[in-house]
């Protein structure tokens, strides 16, 4: 039944917008696509794509530095290659966020995966030209960054639009588990690649160029799986997406008079002064609910989420950049105690993947225990502790046991922080189109991975304490900001209204409570004093009521 569900209303291939004046929502199709939301017929493709993408990423990470040494480069070029990959992620997140909003999900994913195929081939082709091949590797990693950044933006936007907000964290945990399996298997595949060495005429594959060819094969599998098995839910049937404001039907005959508009606006302002966790939305007029649902996300909360994401990704960028150089420092350039062989780096990253997997599995079980805000705060505190443990209080002396403990804590911090921040952000943006919003938050994460490799490598040459100390201080900033601005991180009004409507529908059907309740956070609700609607002119008020020019909380 699930696999037989087809897109009865076809969207234009390059136009993801649906004109509400010509398309009506069929009640039968509403039920079909509601079942598809909970179906694994499309989720399994997401899991497969994320798994293969992470295998591709983790194949390269431990072997990138030895591969680049073939071209006679130093650590600065390593930082450059790591940074250009993140620049690709930054641009890819934004670019494919816009492509997603302007086209279908499938088309967005096809073009994104195609970029990954090209980048993977260029990465391997660089090995054939020892003189200038390093720039092919450089270009290949940039295009691969476009691929991974775009894929993340597309998938997170689709999940935000199609999945119930309270199931969002669970879905992200599932994707995280798939990602971690890829991270765990990647180094294993990398070790296997170390034994590959053959030649066919002028074409040869060795332990380093084989990585790119494996990645190209993975992109082909992803493309075919998406093409043949993925069933897309049309935009007009996605529960988390309101109608496009630019295409809303304008019917002057249905417009209320200005006094009624002012009444709706005034009532909405009154509602915004209450704690959304305890307010009874069932008593509200539908026009007020509609008004609140279209309010733009709290901009201060959006900025706080971006900062949280930025600092978590910085912690990850530092870890992925310096782990191999500092743990395999056989010439004692950075420390006098960490001089293990290259295989030790593979073991560390494999352990990191295993810990991340345990984190996501645990998160899936405990995600209902408390709010996303509390989980985000916990992840920031763990990041602070992890990098504090890594500080070498004795110059050039980092005990191996302490290094491993700190590494493990940070390995748990990133997947926890990334997952819960995305879940928190999806609730914060409400029913607004997620392509651009998710593109921006992932682009912010990419910024850290652009800057992180450079500053961490440069600071490492001064002292590992400088690298780890700055990272710990950034997490401390994270904790302080979250505590100061906790009241701006509440979910969008549409989230609470949807819960109230589900409760009301369940009662009408005689099922009692739907069992869906907002999770409590560490903060009490305290509306920002400058949170207000822009109500300067009556004409503006009327436009707002009709869905135009709606201003959010500042």
TrEMBL record:
SUPFAM superfamilies: MFS general substrate transporter. Residues 243-262 have a biased composition (Acidic residues). Residues 241-262, 507-554 are annotated as: Disordered. InterPro entries: MFS (IPR011701), MFS_dom (IPR020846), MFS_Domain-Containing_Protein (IPR051068), MFS_trans_sf (IPR036259). Residues 42-490 form the Major facilitator superfamily (MFS) profile domain. It is a multi-pass membrane protein. Pfam families: MFS_1. Keywords: Membrane, Transmembrane, Transmembrane helix, Transport. The chain crosses the membrane at residues 44-65, 77-100, 107-129, 175-200, 212-231, 300-318, 344-363, 375-391, 403-425, 437-455, 467-485. It is found in: Endomembrane system. One of its GO terms (molecular function) is transmembrane transporter activity. Residues 514-530 have a biased composition (Low complexity). One of its GO terms (cellular component) is lysosomal membrane. This is Major facilitator superfamily (MFS) profile domain-containing protein. It comes from Euplotes crassus.
């Amino acid at each position: 039944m699930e696999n037989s569900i087809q897109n009865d209303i076809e969207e234009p291939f390059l136009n993801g917008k649906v004109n509400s004046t010509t398309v009506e929502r069929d009640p039968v199709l509403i039920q079909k696509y509601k079942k598809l939301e909970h179906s694994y017929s499309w989720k399994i493709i997401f899991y497969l794509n994320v798994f293969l993408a992470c295998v591709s990423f983790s194949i390269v990470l431990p072997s990138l530095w030895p591969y680049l040494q073939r071209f006679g480069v130093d650590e600065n070029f390593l930082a450059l290659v790591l940074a250009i990959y993140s620049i690709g992620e930054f641009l890819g997140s934004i670019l494919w966020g816009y492509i997603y909003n302007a086209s279908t999900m499938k088309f967005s994913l096809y073009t994104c995966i195609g970029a990954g195929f090209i980048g993977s081939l260029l990465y391997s082709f660089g090995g054939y030209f020892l003189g200038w091949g390093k720039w092919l590797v450089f270009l290949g990693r940039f295009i691969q960054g476009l691929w991974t950044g775009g894929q993340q933006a597309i998938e997170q936007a689709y999940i935000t639009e199609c999945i119930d907000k309270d199931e969002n964290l669970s879905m992200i945990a599932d994707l995280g588990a798939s990602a971690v399996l890829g991270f765990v298997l990647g180094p294993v595949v990398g070790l296997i690649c170390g034994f590959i060495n053959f030649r066919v005429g002028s074409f040869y594959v060795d332990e380093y160029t084989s990585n790119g060819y494996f990645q190209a094969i993975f992109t082909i599998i992803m493309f075919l799986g998406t093409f043949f098995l993925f069933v897309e839910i049309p935009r007009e049937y996605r529960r988390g997406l309101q109608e496009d404001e630019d295409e809303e039907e304008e019917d002057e005959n249905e417009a209320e008079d200005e006094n009624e508009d002012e009444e709706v606006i005034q009532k909405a302002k009154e509602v915004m002064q209450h704690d959304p966790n305890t307010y009874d939305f069932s008593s509200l007029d539908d026009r007020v609910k509609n008004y609140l649902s279209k309010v733009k996300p709290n901009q201060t909360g959006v900025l706080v989420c971006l900062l949280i994401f930025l600092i978590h990704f910085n912690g990850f960028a530092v870890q992925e950049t310096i782990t191999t150089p500092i743990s395999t420092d056989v010439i004692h350039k950075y420390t006098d105690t960490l001089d293990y062989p290259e295989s030790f780096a593979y073991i560390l990253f494999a352990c990191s993947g295993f810990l991340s997997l345990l984190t996501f599995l645990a998160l899936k079980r405990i995600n209902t225990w408390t709010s996303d805000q509390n989980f985000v705060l916990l992840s920031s505190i763990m990041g602070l502790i992890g990098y504090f443990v890594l500080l070498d209080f004795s110059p050039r002396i980092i005990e191996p046991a302490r290094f491993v403990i700190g590494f493990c804590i940070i390995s748990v911090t990133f997947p926890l922080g990334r997952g819960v921040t995305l879940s928190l952000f999806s609730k914060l943006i409400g029913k607004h189109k997620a392509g651009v919003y998710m593109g921006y938050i992932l682009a912010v994460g990419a910024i850290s991975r652009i800057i992180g490799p450079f500053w961490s490598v440069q600071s490492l040459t001064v002292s590992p304490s400088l690298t780890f100390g700055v990272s710990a201080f950034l997490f401390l900033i994270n904790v302080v900001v979250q505590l100061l601005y906790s009241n701006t991180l509440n979910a969008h009004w549409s989230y609470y209204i949807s819960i109230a409507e589900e409760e009301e529908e369940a009662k009408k059907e005689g099922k009692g409570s739907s069992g869906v309740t907002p999770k409590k956070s560490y903060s009490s609700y305290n509306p920002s004093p400058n949170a207000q609607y822009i109500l300067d002119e009556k004409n503006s008020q009327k436009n707002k009521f009709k869905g135009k020019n709606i201003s959010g909380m500042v």
